[in-house]
Amino acid sequence: MRDELNILRFLGLAAKAGKVTSGYDQVETALRKGTVNLLILSTDISRNTLSQILDLGEKSGITMPDAYSFATKEQLGRAIGKPDRAVVAITDKGFADKLSAMLAQED
After folding, report:
1. Distance (Å, rounded) from C-alpha 41 to C-alpha 71?
2. Which residues are within 8 A (CB) of 107 and not within 5 positions of it... i.e. 6 or more apart?
3. How far apart are CA 59 and CA 92, in angstroms?
4. pLDDT (tens digit, 9 = 90+) per residue, 47-93?
5. Which CATH class is domain 2-106?
6. Among 57, 32, 46, CA closest to 86
7. H or E element at residue 20
8. Distance from C-alpha of 81 to C-alpha of 72, rounded to nearest angstrom
9. Segment (H or E) for 22
10. Distance CA 31, CA 16 (A)
11. Are residues 75 and 22 in contact, defined by beta-carbon separation less than 8 angstroms?
12. Is the Cβ–Cβ distance between 34 and 63 less than 8 Å?
């Protein structure tokens, strides 16, 4: 629980720094531009959205383990100061590396 809270707080910090893109359309654009370093997919993402994002991710070079399933849509949205978000992309390598390490420990 404590690690989950720290991850959500760090995600919020990344968002405040302007290093987070969220929502399907914005993440799709970022994937196509090749600016995504890490994907975080909500645990309650729809199968259709998950399939579309992972297909796009593969075409853009973003594949597992560069994608993690973590937290609910509500938790992700709240962490970044937005409404519910099923998908969040980290666009900064430093933030992505730190979050990836934190998420790997959570697994």
Report:
1. 8
2. 68
3. 20
4. 999 888 878 767 776 654 488 999 999 999 999 999 999 999 999 99
5. alpha beta
6. 46
7. strand 20-22
8. 14
9. strand 20-22
10. 21
11. no
12. no
pTM over 0.70: yes
Give 23's strand partners: none
Dist CA 72 CA 62 (whole Å): 21
Concatenate the DSSP letters of all residues of 24-92 into one string. HHHHHHHHHHT--SEEEE-TT--HHHHHHHHHHHHHTT--TTSEEE-S-HHHHHHHTTSS--SEEEE--
> Which amino acid, residue 34?
G
Which helix (H) or strand (E) segment holds residue 21: the answer is strand 20-22
Whether the CB-CB separation of 87 and 27 falls below 8 Å is answered with: yes
d(CA 46, CA 2): 27
